[in-house]
């Protein structure tokens, strides 16, 4: 048996699967594509998370697109984080190309151009279905981790939430939360001290500064109503194809705090609401996080711990997380160790640091008698990748340098008119794009403060009237006494003109004598 035949057998037997699977391409040996040596990813293991990595321009986005398309075709909904803004073309079919036909002929897979059911979502003021969540839905623990608060400050946040619960006061947006912090150390200081203990102004000041930092990254647009229901990510169209939900994030690349806030909120909500699924035949939802370093580079230690915990646990809910980044070292080791599928595109060795990173990357892949992994990593062409997945029993499949299949949808963005048309047909846009500002903590506390001020003013006016009344009463008594003295008969005789003249007359006579 030739080396080529042995390799073909090695790949095809190692990729045998009884259930549904996604063929992502054909294996390569010594730079030659082995037609029919298909590299397959079992659908039932795609909730084991994954990584798509590689240098800029090597084909990461196209690999992401291929996986999303095939998942949709299998009836599995997808959520894509579109940082670069080049994924909306999934809504339109590929125009086709001679090179695509040549590629698929080599691979031994048919090519069919098609569009996919797409929903465009947004965190900001861009066009799309608006995603929001309330502060109450975050809860004190998650909010404290997002804000990277100290233990003391987290305790203050817990007290604030307890006060709102006790007083049936909804905390919907950051305006509400800031108002309660202010109230706790100013107008409501006595109320809080009596019921929950004294709250330090230094702690509330530090928390407020963190909130302002979050607001500066656009979080005021995210916090509020109508809250997005994660079940709406699980829609399937009339043809049984899963919706591809594309989150437009092109305008928040310089606001990683907002991105982290959203991601942690989303994953926590999914984990809290999705039922336990275990190892089923297909995942419930697959999430692709492009430019994943935006989450990890800016995350606090507490936030990283939360992400690591969710990555470990969310698999049981039938949810797979796929991180897309330039280098596997962008992903923390604790998370990297949880990733079952790895699609590694070419890495470039321009510096000693690059060469060191390539050696570390090679260690993340199974050993292969057919490849020098370190060498292959630098020699892969565009649209080629090292692929290692898990088989149906959870074992790594043979490592394969793979010529990846081409996307079936357009490898370009939608025009403004196409995007506008897509959004005009969206049922979710009608559901979520109306802003609601119902009475919440901000209005309720303002009303409470106004009532307290009105009562205080009323009491002050009452006291002033009482004081005026007392003064008037005292003046009347004094006047009455003076009048009473003047009306006395004896006083009248003594002060009369006749009496005075008589007295002075007698005195004159006495003096003359």
Task: Note down, in words, how this protein is organized.
- There is one protein chain.
- By secondary structure, the protein is α/β, with parallel strands linked by helices.
- The protein is built from 20 helices and 12 strands.
- It has helices at 3-14, 60-73, 98-107, 135-147, 151-166, 174-185, 189-196, 201-215, 219-222, 256-273, 293-298, 301-313, 333-336, 352-362, 373-379, 416-424, 427-432, 441-487, 489-494, 497-512; strands at residues 21-29, 32-42, 50-53, 78-82, 118-122, 129-130, 244-248, 285-289, 319-325, 341-344, 384-388, 400-404.
- Strands 2-1-12-11-10-3-9-8-4-7-5-6 form a 12-stranded mixed sheet.
- A hairpin with a 2-residue loop joins strand 1 and strand 2.
- Helix 4 (135-147) runs antiparallel to helix 5 (151-166), helix 6 (174-185) packs parallel to helix 18 and helix 14 (352-362) packs across helix 15 (373-379).
- The N and C termini lie far apart (170 Å).
- 41% of the residues are buried.
Put simply, the count of helices is 20
How are the strands of the largest sheet arranged? 2-1-12-11-10-3-9-8-4-7-5-6
Radius of gyration, whole Å: 38 Å
Oligomer: single chain
Number of strands: 12
Largest sheet: 12 strands, mixed
Helicity level, as a percent range? 40-55%
SS class: alpha/beta
Q: Compute the average pLDDT.
A: 85
Report how far apart the termini are.
Answer: 170 Å
Summarize, please.
The chain is of the alpha/beta class.
Question: Could you outline the blueprint of secondary structure elements for this entry?
Answer:
Blueprint: H1 3-14, E1 21-29, E2 32-42, E3 50-53, H2 60-73, E4 78-82, H3 98-107, E5 118-122, E6 129-130, H4 135-147, H5 151-166, H6 174-185, H7 189-196, H8 201-215, H9 219-222, E7 244-248, H10 256-273, E8 285-289, H11 293-298, H12 301-313, E9 319-325, H13 333-336, E10 341-344, H14 352-362, H15 373-379, E11 384-388, E12 400-404, H16 416-424, H17 427-432, H18 441-487, H19 489-494, H20 497-512
Parallel strand pairs: 3-9, 3-10, 4-7, 4-8, 5-6, 5-7, 8-9
Antiparallel strand pairs: 1-2, 1-12, 10-11, 11-12
Helix pairs in contact: 4-5, 6-8, 6-18, 10-12, 14-15
């Amino acid at each position: 048996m030739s080396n080529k035949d042995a390799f073909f057998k090695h790949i095809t037997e190692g990729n045998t699967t009884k259930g549904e699977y996604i063929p992502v391409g054909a294996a390569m040996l010594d730079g030659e594509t082995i037609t029919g040596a298909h590299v397959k990813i079992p659908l039932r293991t795609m909730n084991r998370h994954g990584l798509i990595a590689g240098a800029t321009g090597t084909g990461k986005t196209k690999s992401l697109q291929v996986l999303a398309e095939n998942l949709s075709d299998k009836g599995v909904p997808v959520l894509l984080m579109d940082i670069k803004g080049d994924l909306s073309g999934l809504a339109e079919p590929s125009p086709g190309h001679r090179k695509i036909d040549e590629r698929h002929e080599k691979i031994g897979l048919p090519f069919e151009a098609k569009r996919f059911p797409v929903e465009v979502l947004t965190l900001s003021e861009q066009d799309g279905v608006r995603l929001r969540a309330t502060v109450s839905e975050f809860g004190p623990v998650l909010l404290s981790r997002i804000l990277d608060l100290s233990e003391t400050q987290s305790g203050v946040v817990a007290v604030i939430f307890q006060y709102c619960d006790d007083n049936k006061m909804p905390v919907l947006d950051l305006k509400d939360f800031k108002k309660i912090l202010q109230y706790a150390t100013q107008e409501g200081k006595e109320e809080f001290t009596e019921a929950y203990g004294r709250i330090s102004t230094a702690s509330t000041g530090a928390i407020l500064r963190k909130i302002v930092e979050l607001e500066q990254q656009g979080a005021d647009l995210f916090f509020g109503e109508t809250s997005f229901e994660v079940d709406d990510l699980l829609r399937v169209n009339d043809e049984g194809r899963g919706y591809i939900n594309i989150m437009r994030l092109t305008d928040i690349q310089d606001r990683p705090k907002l991105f982290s806030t959203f991601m942690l909120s989303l994953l926590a909500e999914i984990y809290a609401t999705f039922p336990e699924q275990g190892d089923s035949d297909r995942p419930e939802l697959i999430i692709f996080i492009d430019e994943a370093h935006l989450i990890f580079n800016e995350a606090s230690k507490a936030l990283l711990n939360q992400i690591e915990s969710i990555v470990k646990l969310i698999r049981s809910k039938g949810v797979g997380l796929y991180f897309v980044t330039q280098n596997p070292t962008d992903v923390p080791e604790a998370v990297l160790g949880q990733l079952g599928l790895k699609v590694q595109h070419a890495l470039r060795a321009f510096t000693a640091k690059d060469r060191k990173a390539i050696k570390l990357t090679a260690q993340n892949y199974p050993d292969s008698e057919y490849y020098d992994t370190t060498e292959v990593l630098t020699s892969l062409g565009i649209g080629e990748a090292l692929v290692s997945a898990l088989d149906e029993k959870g074992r790594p499949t043979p490592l394969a340098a793979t010529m990846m299949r081409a996307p079936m949808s357009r490898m370009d963005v939608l025009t403004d008119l196409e995007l506008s048309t897509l959004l005009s047909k969206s049922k979710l846009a009608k559901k979520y794009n109306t802003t609601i500002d119902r009475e919440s903590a901000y209005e309720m506390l303002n009303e409470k403060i106004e009532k307290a001020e009105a009562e205080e003013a009323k009491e002050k006016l009452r006291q002033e009237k009482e004081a005026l009344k007392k003064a008037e009463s005292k003046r009347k008594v004094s006047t009455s006494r003076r009048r009473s003295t003047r009306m006395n008969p004896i006083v009248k005789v003594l002060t009369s003109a006749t009496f005075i003249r008589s007295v002075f007359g007698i005195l004159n006579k006495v003096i003359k004598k």
